[in-house]
Specification:
The protein contains ten helices and no strands. It is mainly α. Residues 35-54 bind DNA.
Amino acid sequence: MNHPKPRTRIQQKNTEAILEAALDVFSQYGFRGSTLDQIAQAAELSKPNLLYYFPSKEAIHATLLAGLLDTWLDPLRAMDPTGEPVEEILAYVRRKLEMSRDFPRESRLFANEILQGAPRIKDALEGELKNLVDEKSVLIARWSAEGRIITVNPHHLIFSIWSLTQHYADFDVQVHAVLGEDSEAPFAEAERYLVTLFTRLLTP
């Protein structure tokens, strides 16, 4: 049985440089608006050198998306069925906001893919993502039925959390335009606001 040769340090470094550069380019221009030339220039590699590592723009994009989906689902996976319901949902809000703060390019990459009809991750959305959201929606519905949170549509609650947290990454330019170019990062105040909002919404 043939095993692939381990990558050399240079190969690993160049692969990482390409993916990092592609994340910058794709998150700024979207898949359709991005080119291999842009990615190669951002990675400080020649285009033929880039093509040694990835055969196409599609291959680079698919590699980024494959790694992203797991990262995207982890905050929801961490919602603990044995925890205090309001605190578990607030912890999810905080984790999603932290992702917008720490991974804004990844958020925009994901948003761009969705806006294009999710051609490269639709199966994952209809499979792994849907299954996880359905599982946590059953949990939230149980908390509602037990009177531990208000009666709420679980799916739409999750959608609301997504929209209110990912906004700070996907619409970063708009947020800073409204708050002022010299304003500090808005995440501390956003967290206070969202925690207050969802605490009041969910508490019976």
